[in-house]
Specification:
By secondary structure, the chain is α+β, with helices and mostly antiparallel strands. It has helices at about 5-10, 55-60, 85, 110-120, 145-160, 190, 195-215, and strands at about 45-50, 65-75, 95-100, 130, 130-135, 140, 170-175, 180. The protein has a single domain, classed as Peptide methionine sulphoxide reductase MsrA (Peptide Methionine Sulfoxide Reductase, Chain A, 2-Layer Sandwich), CATH 3.30.1060. The protein contains seven helices and eight strands.
């Protein structure tokens, strides 16, 4: 997760393996509704998802009805290593992740899971997503309560039996440790930088697929922090 170093390199299309590197978007998968639905009590809830560069995951969840906040950040490592360039070494234990705040009366946790696997991240890619490689780009669900943990395990098992992917699903369920918000310039990145090369070629198609597959859940405007 390193920034491009030379502007000349940018001019000829040479990019480092990071969120800064343009890549072709991969196709969405029409995931099934969850057999086990979440039943969370009233009031705002939070959930954490890791699935590659947080710019795209944030953009997807930011376009869902019932979601009031999506924060990009780091999960899995220590507080003093929750720094973009340090996480980029792949040796901190952190994953790039998002913390989603939602109203379960408007959108359930199992629906968030369905969207995540359909358009957010490829669950067959181990320690990478598209052009971004390293353990910091691992694919993981991080339940925040027992109900989320139960539903996440059930849906993951359901998808593994579905045969929707040719390769094995490698998504893991990680215990929650602590979530550290990323630097300010990472927040609302897709909303603030719609013409950025990576956003146009990698993340905008995810949002388009969200609108196509989940018209009842999709909202046009970004949820900004």
């Amino acid at each position: 997760m390193r920034r491009p170093i030379l502007s000349a390199a940018l001019a000829v299309g040479i990019f480092t393996a990071s969120c800064q590197q343009p890549a072709q978007a991969e196709g969405a998968v029409a995931t099934p509704a969850a057999a086990v639905q979440a039943n969370e009590p009233a009031g705002k809830k939070t959930a954490v998802f890791a699935g590659g560069c947080f710019w795209g995951i944030e953009a997807v969840f930011s376009h869902l009805n019932g979601v009031s906040s999506v924060v990009s950040g780091y999960h899995g490592g220590a507080k003093n290593t929750a720094i973009y360039d340090v996480v980029g070494t792949g040796r901190t234990g952190h994953a790039e992740a998002v913390r989603v705040t939602y109203d379960p009366a408007k959108i359930r946790y199992d629906q968030l899971l369905r969207v995540f696997f359909a358009v957010g991240a490829d669950p067959t890619q181990l320690n990478y997503q598209g052009p971004d490689h390293g353990t910091q780009y691992r694919n993981a669900l991080v339940p925040m309560n027992q109900e989320q943990a139960k539903v996440a395990a059930a849906y993951l098992a359901q998808l593994k039996k579905s045969g929707l992917w040719k390769q094995p699903i490698v998504t893991t369920i990680e215990p929650y440790k602590a979530f550290y918000p990323a630097e300010g310039y990472h927040q609302d990145f897709a909303a603030n930088n719609p013409d950025h090369g990576y956003i146009k070629r990698w993340d905008a198609p995810k949002v388009a697929n969200l609108k196509r597959l989940f018209p009842d859940l999709y909202k046009a405007g970004f949820t900004r922090n």
